[in-house]
Structures are given as C-alpha cells and as structure tokens.
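Subject: complex prediction, re-run

Hi both,

The earlier run crashed halfway through, so I resubmitted it with identical inputs.
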Amino acid sequence: MVAKYVMLADTTRCINCKACEVACRAEWDTPLGYSRDWVKEVEYVNAKGLPEVQLFPGRCQHCDDPPCVEVCPSGASWKREDGIVLVDHAICSGCELCVPACPYDARWLNPVTNTISKCTFCQPRIDKGLQPACVETCVGHALIFGDANDPNSAVSQLLKAKEWQKLVTDEVNIGPNHYYYTAGKAIPDAVMPKLNERHLSGTLMENIVNPLGTLGIGGMMAVFLGAGIKKLIDRRQDVSNKEGSHEQH
Amino acid sequence: MSSTKPTIKVRTKDVIAIHWFNAFFWLTLVLTGFGIISGDFVRLAPAFWPTFLQNLLGGNANLVLLHGIGGMVWAGVIGVYALLNFKRVVLPFLKNVLVLTPKAAIADVSSMVITLAHLFGLLKHQSVPPQGRYNGAQRLLGTMIIACSLAIAVTGMYLFLSPMLLDFAASAGVLGGVFRWALVIHLAAVLLVLLGLVAHIYFAVVEEPESLETMKSGEAEVAFIKHHNPLWYAELEREGKV
Ligand code: SF4
Ligand code: SF4
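This time it finished cleanly. Structure:
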C-alpha cells in the first residue's frame, strides 16, 4: 500500500525551544527572516483565572485537498501519491497565486530563488529513509512523523492511543495531515486556519474568464453544430424534393 | 475547383504560407498551453489532457519550454514577415479588416447577425448588405485576432521570460502582480480568438469551401466573387482585373 505521511505534534511536550525551526532553516538554507515551520505561542486566561500558554508547532499541513495546488497555473505545485505537497522549482514562476490560497499561511516567496518555499516534510530525507529535520531535532519529542497506512508505525499507534485534533473549522476543512494533541484542551482561535483574500486577478480568472470562455466556446460549437445539422437536413429535403418532381414528370 | 470556370489570383504564395504557419502554430500552442495549466481552478481542458501531455513530454518543465519557444517562434516569424511586407500585404489587409469606429462596428455586427440568422432560416426577409472583400463577421474577427494576437504575444513573452530574468521577490509584489494580470489577459485573449475560430473554421469548411480553396491555391472563382462580394468584384472590375 502507498504510504500516507502524517505529522503529529504533542503540544503538551513542546517547550518552545525552537530547535525544530533552527533545524529546518539549516536544512533548507532559508534566508534570514524566513522559515518553513514555526511555533505559535498562544497566551490566555484559563477557567480558573490563571494565565496559560499553549504551543503549536506548525508547517504546511500537506492537505488532502490542497487549494494551493488547485490555483497553481503552471502545475509547479503538486501532490505526490504519498500525500506530500511539493513545489517544482524548475517551473514555479513565483506568481504567488498560491500564497493567499493557503489558509495556514505556509507559503512564501523565497527572495533568493524567486520561487515558492514551504515545508516538504523534508521529502529528500524521507526518500532516503530518514526523519524530517525538525522531528530529528525536537528536544521534547513533541513531533512524531510517519506513515499512517502502516499499522506498525509509531504514528499509527499514537493515533489510536490518544485523542488527536486537526486545525479545521467549518469554513476551512481541506483535509490536513497534521495532528495535534492538547490533552483535551480546546484549540485557540488564533492558530485556526483563515480564508485569505485572494488576488483579484486569480479570482477573475477562476470565476469569470474561465467559465465565460468555456461557455462561449461550447455555445459557439453548439450553434455551428446546429447550423451544420440544419444544412444537412435542408440538403436532404432538397434532394428528395427534386427526386419527387422527377418521378412526377 | 473545376478548371473550366474562370478564376483569378487573389492570394500570393507567401500570404498562403503565413496563414497556414499561423494556423499550425495556433493549434500547437493551444494544445500545449492547455496542457500546462493543470490546477483545477484555472485549468480549461479536461484533467486527463495536462497529465497526458506532461507524461508524453517528460514533465511540465519541458512542456513550458516547448510552449514558450513555440510562442516566440510564432510571434517572431509573423512579426518579421509583417515588417518586411508591411506596405504590400499588411497595410492593405489592415485597411480591409480593421473595424475602428463604433458605426462600422454596429454595421458589421448587424450584418454578422443577419448572416448567422440565415444559417437557421431566420430573418429571411433581411438581406446582408453588399460585401467588399471581407464581410462584417470576417472584419470583426480580423480586428479581434489582430488585437488579441498582439496581447497574446506581449503577455506570453512576459510570462515566459520574466521568471527567468526578473527578481519578483525584490519588487514588493509588483512584478508578480503584473505576471498574474498577464496570465489573465493571455488566457482571455486566447479564449476570445478560439471563440471566433469556431465560426471561421465552420464557414471555411461547410458554408464557403470556395474560400478554403482560395487559401490553398490562391485562385478564386470570378463567379463566386461576383455573387458573394459584389463590392470587391466592382473594385476588381475598376482595376481591370476581371
Ligand atoms: S497547508 Fe497550505 S501549502 Fe500546505 S498543502 Fe495545505 S494549502 Fe497547501
Ligand atoms: S508561485 Fe505558486 S501558484 Fe505560482 S507557479 Fe509557483 S507554486 Fe504555482
């Protein structure tokens, strides 16, 4: 069976040391100020009136139904059979149509390569049988990565053993493959995905240019197919009329 | 075409060659273009097409390269041809075809509507006004194709070359924004031309195969011109060509 890679983040084990971020930046040589992953820190006052902090390590969620892939005009954004969402840098134009399409804000334009950068679950490492750099470095063992289709994998066992949640809302439910364990605590709104405002040009292409063009061309074909059929029928009638008049003579 | 009917030469070999060159490149560029755009939201062809073509050519990068180079060859050859033959071919063609005033556009639209209605046996009592070398629909299509081809060439060049040559990230979103709008214009212009091409091909193949013949041999039947394009016939008469 093909693998289905997932990432688990146990928020109760995360200590916000940022080792994962540092490892990721080193692995991918990301420019200063940019990172393919992050740890979000959410402070709030709990039911007892005491301040609390929750930590959410995050990255591309490798969604089952990724809008970033759907909007990419060049096919540079694509999804591998094992669920990993990748960017083909040879054809990414850097048009950024995919950036606002991602509700997890996981994509950014790399100023060095001029193409889109995002977490790939360290695909080259995985293909060599290694773990992603962030998982390997995670000090608190908060990050666990593996194949959810393999019943013997650590992720499969953990998924069965604990109550995991995904970052989904009624508005954004695109099948993320990143799970969070919070020991039953509700996930704060601040880390939930949000629909971004799309680029006007992309919206126009998607909602006006393409449907109108398809309808128009389809309509034209239907009109001329109709005209052709009518011409054939008329011709037949002409021939049979002529034959009829011949017979009468 | 029967050799017994009198014909006259209305198209030179180079014009015929550039027409078929244009047609061949259009077909190739449309097929490869529809293969590149693979995302569900922006894709125009059924999903199997990009997959098939990308597999055939060993990946989308090769397809993009083929489409980009093909586009530049298309624009380059037509551009050079137009420059070299501006006075002899392009200028007379533009004079015959360009619809620039609203009045001319209205007249052409109305004659096009009547022609189309006639195909379905409608508006029989309305006759199409006498035509010159090109009819209303051909003029409108011609104007649209010229405008759209220019837009396609310019935006296509930007789409192909800008990611290689320009620094999108350093432009604070400006160059990427231009790229996205170029994509919209490129696509819209291609769709507009395709819309017109459906009619163009139908008329050439079904309604007036004589004009298709002219685009192959360069010869047109005098009787056909007299019947279909009386104003042009009168012009040819004045010039002593018929
Ligand atoms: S998280 Fe964003 S970038 Fe990653 S697959 Fe989902 S939509 Fe695409
Ligand atoms: S920027 Fe995003 S949408 Fe544009 S080509 Fe690259 S991956 Fe595709």
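Strands of chain A lie at 5-10, 38-45, 51-58, 77-79, 85-87, 108-109, 116-117, 143-147, 178-181.

- K.
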